[in-house]
Amino acid sequence: MHPTTFIELSIVFSVIIVIAIIALLFPKKVKKMVWILSAVILIAGVSFYTARPFIVEHQTEKAVEQLEKHLEETYPGDAWGITDTDEHRMTKVVFLHVIFVSEPDIVYEYTFENKTIEQVGMWMLSGEPVEESGVKPKHSE
Q1: Domain match, 80 and 122 both
Q2: Which of 14, 36, 52, 92 is most buried, by CB atoms within 10 Å?
Q3: Domain assignment present for 139
Q4: pLDDT tens-place string over residues 64-118
């Protein structure tokens, strides 16, 4: 489980516990409604955090497919490997990393947002910027 997911789940459960404690202060009629509210929040929270990895995986697969098409059109005859950032957050922007077979020492970073693919950065596998390494990138867009 990702650390931020653990923190977010802890916050959800804390809110539910606070609501349950507050429910003890209300009369019987209102208490039942507050208990139902806390149960709905619990079910919604568990459902969301259960479904989120699948949603992120689908989002990433869609972005990889689009990037594959883009790279096939832009660099025909070349080969590459695509990886994601392994972040399990649902965001509008998906970051993907590409390493071309012809340039195995350079990592190219692409974003996928609103069906638009853009190259946003590149660096050497060692972590240093490409500009400082003296290597001229062949796949710079």
Answers
A1: yes
A2: 52
A3: no
A4: 999 999 999 999 888 999 988 766 666 677 889 999 998 888 999 998 888 889 9
Alpha carbon distances (Å) from 104 to 46, 65, 82, 138: 42, 21, 12, 11
133 is written with which tokens?
Answer: 């390494």
Collapsed DSSP state (helix, strand, coil) of residue 108: strand
* 72 and 47 part of one domain: no
pTM score, two decimals? 0.70
Cα distance between residue 71 and residue 80, in whole Å = 9
Cα(82)–Cα(56) distance, integer angstroms? 16
Pairing of strands 116-124, 80-84: unpaired
Helical (H) or strand (E) element with 125: none
d(CA 90, CA 94): 9
Q: Report how far residue 123's alpha carbon sits from residue 131's, in angstroms, rounded to the nearest whole number.
A: 8
Do 46 and 84 lie in one domain? The reply is no
Long-range contacts of 31-35 (CB under 8 A, 24+ apart): none
Dihedral of the CA atoms 139, 86, 133, 140 (nearest 10)? Answer: 20
